[in-house]
Amino acid sequence: MEPRGELTQILDRARVGDEAARAELLGRMYEELRRVAGRMMTRERSDHTLSPTAVVHEAVIRLLGEEVFAKAEDRGFVLASAARAMREVLIDHARRRSAGRRGGDWRRVPLDGVVDYFEGQGLDVVAVHEALDRLAAMSERQAQVMTLRYFAGMTVPEVAAALDVAVVTVERDWRLARAWLGEQLRGGEG
Amino acid sequence: MTSRERWSRIGELFEEASRLAPDARTGWLREACDGDADLFDQVSRLLAQDEEADRDGFLAPPAPAPAPTPGATGPWPDAATVPSAGRSGRGFTPYDAIQSAPASSFPGRDLARRRLLGLTTTCLVITLLILAWKYAVVRDPDPRQAAPYGLLILGLAGLIAVLRGSRPFSPSTFEAMELGMIGSVAAVYAFAQYQTMLDFSIRNDPDRAQLVLNHRILVATILILSYGIYAPACWRRTAVVVGTLALLPFATLALLLSLHPAEMEWMARLGRERGSTPLAHYGFDATLLLILAAWSTHGAYWITQLRTQAREARRLGQYRLGERLGVGGMGEVYRAEHRLLKRPCALKLIRPDFDPGGKALERFEREVRITAGLSHPNTVDVYDYGRTEDGEYFYVMELLPGLSLDELVRRHGPLPPGRAVHLLRQVCLALAEAHAAGLVHRDIKPSNIFASRRGGVDDVAKLLDFGLVRPIAPGLSADLSEEGQILGTPMYMAPEQATGDREVDARSDVYSLGAVAYQLLTGAPPFAGGSAVAVLVALARDPAPPPSQRRPGVPEDLECVVLRCLAKAPADRFPDVLTLERALGECACAGDWGPDEAARWWRSHEPAAVA
Fold this sequence. Notes:
With 190 residues, chain A is an all-alpha fold. Chain A is built from nine helices and no strands.
């Protein structure tokens, strides 16, 4: 019998604010995302590119598939952890990518789309990541909205469904967070 | 660092201010901040950033994510948005996860290449012959006359070399090449005719000048005939080309007479001295060439017709296509008829370009073979399978008058419990055969089950689309679905199938049958609504709500059966479909629906579907 309920316990503890449990959940999610993303990338796929949404979805399902949860609550919590972990995966990837570019050993992978997007905006993805962490300290939900929107590639309605809030709330959060990020990342004195 | 409370206050002010007109904001904000200069400053900066972001598209939504990987767990359309396969909804999986590659093929391209090659070779041979004759046999003319022929030979040889290579060309390129080639040949011959006739006339040798014209006419006949044979693209173009070829020798002659009347005086004299006219002298040859041109045009027309017919006949063998019943990512489904048997059938045509890797074609081929190997009356009958000349695969199966369960529920709402049991028991029996043969269906869903009229009986269930079937025991056939890929429709998928953790077996099909039963009874699958992840998460951990909660009137015994099918752990479900079939048969409502009720229902509700 596998240690059934282990993840449920972690989730319970994380929900009530246990930092260690949060880190544990994030770590697991991170590992899973990396596994899924790595496997998806090595798959021979000439016909399609991979969306970050697909990576997050598959990772969540695989992680949750390890055991069956007792309660239907906290989907948003799990998903937000997944999105946060996704950000870590992408930052790792961006770092490796810039190192690899210098070394000349760099292969384009589907997740590059996200990094490309920020570069196209004239932004350093690592700076965005750090700014979002600061935003999370002020409003966790706003950081989650941005993370899900930009790092997990979800649409506004999808974000709303994932966080179980109204679409207008997501739009409002997005607008404020955008202005704040603009100030932080390109506004100068901020 | 701004505190949470302060940040939420900033957010409120930002939101309210952003609803105001830009010029009214500052005044309002100053008042709202009530002397807190720092707060005023922060919100103003954010508002300025907001305006600037709107202007320059800062963090504008990323481009829509690329199409989800087939089978990977991207967002999928829910049942309501999956394009239903045509009006009558044949229910073949639209495979919409698989998208076609944009490449297009040009059927018959090889033929166009071979034809052009033949025509060019003929022209090259004639030109070489003329040149050799001039210099090896006649040994007379001016070496400068060889120049245009030499150029032509080089050009034709170059074209042959290009055509023999493997570079692909589009049909319009072939047409342009063909017209350019025949045009240059005609131009060089006309120029040579002009030059040599003038030359002999100047040298006062009218006999040989006339001989040149005669040769020229003979060469024109060869060109006309070979064009008709080798390039019968369409009769209009052939008519223009061969008509020009026929008239060119005479046009050249006319040009020569008008530009050099003195040198060509002999020719005019020739006619007058013998009491003849130019018409009498050349009219007959010209008429013959024109007749030949008409004949060649007709030949081209005829060859094209024959080829089209032959292609059509070869295309789908014995089948004649009728109306299109549905479209999917892989190809199209048509109503079709066997030419000799006149048996109506459904023909699924797979586009040749949709799957460059060949994986899906393999899967398709396997689907056909597997389905053909099953003979249960509740499994769809596969009649035929083949490949067209253009590389399209097709397979032919029985045409099912009736509706898919998906459409049945959508059009008429949830089914009476007795009817659901009646249909599901038949599907169980069809699956029993497949499971006994070591095959799991893996994609059981309402749109893959048909309630149709067969053998004069209504509500005969037919299970279709074994596209995702795979052997239970490994080693029976290569596993074509890649590891970790989720194939199938998540709403009817067993949890172990969605997570990919456990081996899928017959009990996964039992789960899917339970989900289908759930939809038949309540109108919706057990887990629907919300985002894609919400469905999958619910699938993985939430118990299915009892159907009677969703829709009162579902009998308790049937509800127990359905919920047992939907158990998360395979061990908690019915061990096999035959046990499930028996359990369904033991429900009190099992006797409520039979052929008579079915016949009455179809006559009154869907008379057109089974007519």
